[in-house]
Amino acid sequence: FDKAALTKALREVGLADGRPFDKALADRAEQELKRQYISKSLYNAEVVTTVTPIERNRVNLTFTVTEGDSARIREIRVVGNKAFSESTLLNLFDQDSGGFMSWYTKSNQYSRTKLNADLETLRSYYLTRGYLEFRIDSTQVAISPDRQDLAVTVNITEGEKFVVSSVKLNGNYLNHEDEFKSLVTIKPGEPYNGEDVTTTTKAFTDYFGTFGYAFAKVQAQTEVDRTNNRVALTMQAEPSRRVYVRRVNIGGNNRTRDEVLRREFRQFEASWYDGDKIKLSRDRLDRLGFFTEVNVDTVEIPGTPDQVDLTVTVAEKPTGSLQIGAGFSSAEKVSLNFGITQENVFGSGNYLGLQLNTSKYNKTISVTATDPYFTPDGISRTFSLYHSTTRPYYSADGDYALKHQGASISFGVPFGEIDTVFFGGGLERYQFDPGSTGTFDLVNGRFVSTSPQAYRDYFGCTNQAGGLLIASCGRDSVWGIPLTVGWARDDRDSALVPTRGKVQRANLEVGVGGDMKYVKTSYQYQQFFPLNKQYTLAINGEVGLGKAFGSDTVNDVRLANGGFPIFKNFYAGGLGSIRGFEQNSLGPRDAITGAALGGTKKAVFNIELSTPFPGAGNDRTLRLYTFFDVGNVFADRQIGTTEAQWKAQQKVRASAGLGISWISPLGPLRLAYAVPIRQQKEVADPDNPFVPLVQKDRIQRLQFQIGTSF
Q: Bridge partners of 589?
C-alpha cells in the first residue's frame, strides 16, 4: 500500500498530528489494516500498534507492518458440474494454481475480487448455453495451517437446459417497432442465451438514446415452461423522459488539453441527448491513440429531470518515445542513432518527429510535424524535411551510395466523420555514386561494377574501355516534383488495440516536373472481426502499381520498367508485409550483386488471429497472435532475363508463424517468428561458378519492431 495514501486515510478517520488520541480509533485502524492485507492475500501480515508517551501530554502512534508472502492458490475445484468438464470450466478462470506466466500475471495469488469476477464468468458461460436456472450454491476457501496455500471449492447447480419458444415486444416503442425488431438477436428454437438477451436489451436502450431518451427502461421478462424446458421472452420497454445535455465534463487528462478532447466530441452542450453521437464521440477519442481507456457516463441533475451532464473520463498513456543508440564496428567505427517522436506535443494533439542516424549504411536526418487541426474545421497540415544517404549493408551487394533530399507539405480535409482526403506536394532530389572502383566480382573473365545495373542505367553510367572502372555517368542526380492525393476511411473502435471496424487507404502520386515523370498508385484495406470478447481476426490487403510516362531511355540505353524511377519502387519482406524474409528483400534483384531492386507492382495479403496471452487473462495490452502472409513485388521482364530468373521473379512468397504484441511504455511492440513456406532456392549457373543464375531469398525468421499493426 502507498504510505502517503494510508496516512491520508488515517487522517480522514481522525488519526493525525495534533488530533486528540483515541484508543478505540487506533484499534479500529489496526483491524482495518489487517483486513486490507487479507484482501490482498497477505494472510500472514502482522500489524502492531505502538503508543509511545512523550512530553506535553502527547503520544507517538506507530503502526509496524510485517507483510509476509502472499498466499498461493494450491487448487480450484468445481463441484456439481455435469454438462461440462471441470477442466473446461476452470479454463474460464483468470485465477489458477499457477503456470509459467504466474510471475507476471499473479494468477495464483488469491483475491476475493478476482474470484467474484471468475464466478461471474462461470455464470455467464452457463447462461449463454441455455442453463437459465444455473446457480452458484456456495464458495469455500480453505487456508493451510501455515497460511501460505489455500484451496477454493465452488459448488454449483446446473439446472435444466432451456430453449427459446418466442420473443415479443411490449410497451411504448415510439412507433418504431419494426426498427426495434431488427435489433433482436434472440432466435426462437435456439438455446436460451443470456448474452443475446443482454445485447438486445442494450441495443434497445441505445436506440432509445438516439431519440433523446437517455433513461429508457428495457427489461427482458421470461415465462418459463419447465415441463417442456422452454422459455418465452417479452421485451418490456418504457422510454421515460426525453433529455438534453447541459454540460460535458472532462477528467483524467493531466497532459492533454481539454480542447483536444472537446473538438472530437459530436454531442454538443445544450443539445438533445443523442446516443449515436455520444458513441461516435467516444470512438473518435479512442482513435486519437492518446488514451488507454475512454469512458463516457451520463449523470442525472437533481431537481432537473429534463437535463443531464456527460462525464468523460480518460486514462492517458505515454505518447512520446526517445530512442538513443550507439554502435561500434571495425567497418564504421562509432555510429549514433537518435530519434524522438511525440504524438501529443505539450498536450496540443500535434505530432513532432525527429530522426538522426549516423550509420555508414543509412545516414538519415528528418523532421516531420503535423497539426491535425490546422484550421478550426479539422483540416490537418504536415511538414517534412529529410536527407538520407543509403549504402548496401552486405558487401556483396556493392559499394554504391544513394542520397535523397527533399521537403514536402500535405493537407488532410475531413469529409464526414470517418473519411479524409489528403493532397500535397514536394520537391526532392536523388544523387547516385556508383562506387569507388566497381571491382568486386569476376564474371566471365572480367570485372563488373558493384552497383546494380538498373541504377547505372537510370543515371546513364558507362564503363571505361576494358570494363574495369566506371568512366562517367550521364547524370549524377535527378530531381522531381511529386504531387499526391489520397483518401482514408477509418471506422475502427480503437487506434491502439482495434477489435472491430476497418481502415481503407488509397493514394496517388504523380511526378509532374523535373527529371522524374511517373504515376504511382496504392490501396490498402484492413478489417477487424471480433470473434468474441477475447479473440479478434484481422485481415490486411495491399496492392500497388507504378508507371512512367515520357522518355524511357538515357544515353541511348533503354531503362527498366519503361523508365519508372527505381527509387520509387514498391518493396516487400519483413514486418509490415511478409514476415520471415529480410526487410525489403523480396522481388526482382540485380543479377550480379543480388541487391533487392523492388518492383512497379505489389500485392500482399495478411491474416492474423490474436488471442489472450496464456496466463494473462483478457489483458488487451499483451496478446499472442498467429499469422499467414503471402505476396511479392513484381516488375516487367527485362532484356537478358533468363526463363529461370523470370519465373523466380513472378513467384509469390508465403510464410506463417506466431508472434507477441505488447503495448509497452515505448509504444506498440511486435515480435514475430515466421517460417517461410514458399521461398526461392538458389539456382546455380553451369556457365558461371562465381554468380548463381537465380539468387536465393534472404531469410530472417525472428523479427521485431516498435510500431503499428501489420
A: 596
- Residues 623, 599 share a domain: yes
Cell 514458399 sits at which residue?
678
Helices (runs of H) and strands (runs of E) counted in the chain: 11, 36
**623 burial class (0-12, 13-18, 19+ CB within 10 angstroms)?**
buried
Same domain, 654 and 700: yes
Cβ–Cβ under 8 Å, residues 134 and 122: no
Euclidean distance between the first and the last CA atom of the chain, given in angstroms as a whole number: 40
| Eight-state DSSP code of residue 682 | P
Query: What are 461's strand-pairing partners?
Result: 473
Read off the pLDDT of residues 579-610 as tens digits, 9 standing for 90 and up. Answer: 999 888 898 887 777 778 889 999 999 999 99
C-alpha to C-alpha distance for 203 and 240, rounded to whole angstroms? 16
The CA-atom distances, in angstroms, between 592 and each of 97, 387, 448 are 60, 29, 8
Measuring CA to CA, which residue among 584, 620, 619 is closest to residue 602?
584
pLDDT in tens, 603-662: 999 999 998 887 665 667 788 999 999 999 998 877 667 777 778 878 899 999 999 988
Is the residue at 565 inside a domain?
A: yes
pTM over 0.90: no
- DSSP annotation string for 200-237: HHHHHHHHHHTTT-TT-EEEEEEEEETTTTEEEEEEEE
Strand order across the beta sheet in which 149-157 lies = 72-79, 149-157, 135-143
- 41 in Cβ contact with 111 (< 8 Å): yes
Residue range of the domain that includes 52:
3-66
Task: Order the strands of the 304-316 sheet from edge to edge.
Answer: 271-272, 244-251, 304-316, 291-301
For residue 57, the domain's CATH number is 3.10.20.310
Buried b (16+ CB within 10 A) or exposed e, 344-365: bbebbbbbbbebbbbbeeebbb
Does a structural domain hold residue 643?
Answer: yes
